[in-house]
Amino acid sequence: MAQVVDGKKLAEEIRAEIRERIEKLDRGAPRLAAVRVGDDPGSKIYVRNKRRACADTGLDSIELHLSADSSEQELLEQVERLNQDPAVHGILVQLPLPDSISAAHVAAAILPEKDVDGLHPQNAGKLLAAQPALYPCTPLGCLEILDRHGIQIEGARSVVLGRSEIVGKPVALLLLHRHATVTLCHSRTRDLPAVVREADIVIAAVGRPRMVQGDWLKPDAAVIDVGINRVDGKLVGDVDFEGALARAGLITPVPGGVGPLTIAMLLRNTLQAFQTQLHLGGA
Ligand code: NDP
Question: 193-203, pLDDT tens digit by residue?
Answer without folding.
Answer: 999 999 999 99
